[in-house]
Design goal:
Elements (H helix, E strand, L loop, with lengths): L1 E5 L9 E9 L8 E3 L6 E5 L4 E4 L5 E3 L3 E4 L6 E5 L3 E8 L19 E3 H5 L1 H12 L3 H15 L8 H12 L6 H8 L3 H11 L4 H19 L5 H7 L5 H12 L12 H8 L2
Antiparallel strand pairs: 1-2, 2-9, 3-8, 4-7, 4-9, 5-6, 5-8, 7-10
Helix pairs in contact: 2-3
Length: 271
């Protein structure tokens, strides 16, 4: 798999973490891939063949070619149907709000077509992105679309942005009570504003950020013991670590190096 990331225009940097592309030839025996929650929403364009998304072991559907997927609160199982060619916009945790045409909380774990979210403008950018012949063209098209469709940035909740920055700086190793004290806002209001701006609670986002940091440590230092990694990331004990690991990957730590996390490993070892 060929994975590359690209920096957004400086005017979009506060909202967009990166653009990324993933390309891979058709596999003879494709298998399921597990995408772990990372606290970021994505706008995805399949210029290759689309992917199947599983809702459970038996039920599945074909993803739209172009869509926004809301916050993941559980592992996402997908499977290629042919050749992989993906261009994606990865938003910061609180970055999608200027383009939200419906409540973000209602979008969780769900791929919503650009037609549904943006109407005719969604159909136009879909056609442009699928017809483009290079990453440079796709970046040019998507940035024009994002600049044009962006609503007033006053919609951005500065308090939430500050709280997200604190969680990122502390690698998610901060209680909601401590976050409430640092932002000088009561816990109930903090949770309500997080839900509106991000689609996750502060506790969910902190848990996700901490786990992604843990995942990076495992990928960069595969010989490190799981116990060492758990304590380095402020898990109470091995059982606490195992519980979060299972909740966010669908696997036990002992199953971590199997091929069905290959795509997630590519994403987070490259960050």
């Amino acid at each position: 798999m060929n994975y590359q990331t690209f920096e957004p225009h400086q005017d979009l940097t506060p909202l967009i973490k990166c653009y990324w592309t993933l390309e891979s030839p058709k596999e003879i025996s494709p298998g399921k891939q597990t995408i772990v929650p990372d606290g970021c929403m994505e706008m995805i364009f399949h210029y290759g063949d689309p992917y199947i998304q599983y809702t459970d072991q038996e039920q599945h559907f074909l993803q739209p070619r172009c869509f926004v997927i809301g916050q993941l609160t559980r592992p996402l199982e997908i499977e290629p149907t042919g050749e992989t060619g993906i261009f994606s916009v990865r938003f910061h945790p609180d970055g999608f709000i200027p383009w939200a045409t419906r409540p973000i909380k209602e979008m969780e774990n769900t791929p919503l077509s650009l037609d549904l979210l943006f109407g005719n403008e969604g159909r136009m950018i879909e056609a442009q992105m699928l017809e483009a012949t290079s990453t440079a063209q796709r970046i040019e098209h998507i940035e024009a679309f994002l600049m044009h469709t962006m609503m007033e940035t006053s919609a951005i909740d500065r308090m939430v942005k500050s709280a997200v920055d604190i969680l990122l700086t502390t690698n998610g190793q901060l209680s909601v009570q401590s976050l409430s004290l640092q932002t000088n806002i009561n816990r109930r209001q903090l949770e309500r504003r997080f839900s509106s701006a991000i689609g996750l609670s502060p506790k969910q986002l902190a848990k996700t950020i901490r786990f992604i940091n843990t995942l990076r440590m495992l990928l960069k230092n595969p010989s490190t013991s799981l116990t060492t990694v758990a304590y380095a990331n402020a898990y109470y004990d091995q059982a606490h670590f195992n519980k979060d690991f299972k909740a966010l990957t669908g696997l036990t730590p002992g199953e971590f190096y199997k091929d069905n996390l290959k795509m997630s490993a590519i994403f987070y070892s490259a960050d």
